[in-house]
Amino acid sequence: MLAPGDSPAGFLRTLVVFHESEALGAGRSILHALDPLRGYGWTASAWLPGEGPLLDEIEGSISMGAYRSKPIRYSARGWRADPGVLVRLRDAPAYLRAFRRALVRARPHVVHANTLRALPEARVARTLGLPVVVHVHELPASGVKTTLALRTAAKTADVLVAVSEAVAEVMRTCAGKTPVLVAYNGVPPYNGHRRPSSPATVGSIGTICRTKGTDVFIEAAALARQTCPDLRFEHIGQSGLDEDEEFARRISALAGSSAVGDVIRLLGRRPANDGLDHWEMLVLPSRQDAFPLTSLEAMAAGVPVIAARVGGIAEQIDHLETGILVEEGSPRAFADWIVRLHRDPDLRARLARAAASRVGDRFTVERQGATMHKAYLAALNLRHGPPPVRTRMREVV
C-alpha cells in the first residue's frame, strides 16, 4: 500500500479538471495545494473548459495544460444561453471525446474532478478505469437535483473530498460506501503590506451575485454610513458570471443610489491584496458559502472579518474570538457590526491577532496538501489494490 513518503518526486501524476476558467475560489484553492503535493511526489496537469484568467494562474504550477470550450451547462438558463440548447447538445460529445484524448496523453494515476460541475469529465475518466477523486466545493441546496448530483458523484468517485464539515454532512447522506474526507482550504502566508487607509474603508470580495450577498453589502453600507458618514466602501469581484440580469440591474441601482453612490466603489476583478492591504475590515455577507478563501485570506492578513453564519464559515470563525458572525441576509446586523468595529480599534486588533493565529494553525496549504495526498493514495489503492488493501483503505479513510 502506498503511503506518504513512499514515492520519489514526480513519480505520481494527477490531472485536475477545473470546472471554470475564471480564477475564482475553487480553482485557486487547489493551486495552493500543488506545492505541498509536489513534496509527496505528485506532478499535476490540468484540463480547463475554455480560455480565461486561470490559464495565467496555473503557469508554473502545472506540467501540462489543455482546454476546450465546454458546451455543457447545469441550469435551464445556462443551456439556453448562446449558442443555444441544440448547438450545446450537438457539441457535447465532441467535447467529451477531446477530454478523453487529453486523459490518454496525460496518463494520470488519479483524476481530480474539482467541483460537482466536473462530473461529466469524471464519468469519462471512470470509463477508462482511472481512479477518480471528486472534490466538492459547493454547498448545494437540498432537492432532487442535489440528490442526483451527489449520488452520481458517489458512484463515479473512488473518494469524495469536502471542503468543510458542513459540506461533508450533506455528502454523506448520498455517499453510500464511498469514503468522504474533509480537506479544509488552506492559504499561503499574507505577503502584502498593511497600511489602513484614511478615511477608513470597509471592503468585500466575491463574485457579484445573489449567493455572495452583494446587495446585502451595499445596503449595509448605506445603513452604516448614516451613523459613520466618514466610512468608505469598496468591492472586489466580477459581475455577469451568473448571467442573472435582474440581479445585475438591482446592484447597479443600489450602487448608484444617493445613499451610497459617492462612497462605494465596485472595483471589478483585481487581486485581493489590493483591498486587504488597506481595508479596515472585510464584510462577507454570503447567503451560502461552503468554505470561502476570501475570509481566510483576510484573516491571514490581519483584517477583521464580519461574515454571515452560513455553511462552513462557522468552522473558520468563532464569534467574537476570531471574527464576527451575524444573521444571514440582514443588512442591519452587518451595519451595526461595521459601526461597532470601526469605533473599537482594540476589538479590531484582538480579532485580527486571533484570526491570523487560527489560520496559521489550522488552515495552511501544507495541511490541505497532506489531506489531498491521502485522498489520492486512497483512490489509487481502492481502485487498483488487492482486496485486503481495499478493505484496509476503507477503514483508514
Plain-language structure description:
46% of the residues lie in helices and 15% in strands. The two termini are 14 Å apart. With 397 residues, the chain is of the alpha/beta class. Helix 5 (119-127) runs parallel beside helix 6 and helix 11 crosses helix 14 (345-362). The chain contains 16 helices and 13 strands. The protein has helices spanning 25-39, 53-58, 76-80, 85-106, 119-127, 144-156, 165-175, 214-227, 245-255, 273-276, 293-301, 313-316, 331-343, 345-362, 365-384, 387-396; strands at residues 12-18, 42-48, 64-67, 110-114, 132-136, 159-162, 180-182, 201-205, 232-236, 264-268, 281-284, 305-308, 324-326. The protein has 2 domains: 12-186 and 364-396, Rossmann fold; 201-362, Glycogen Phosphorylase B (Rossmann fold), CATH 3.40.50. The strands form 2 sheets. Strands 3-2-1-4-5-6-7 form a 7-stranded parallel sheet, sandwiched between helices.
Question: Notable features of this structure?
Answer:
single chain, Rossmann fold, 15% strand, alpha/beta, 397 residues, six-stranded parallel β-sheet
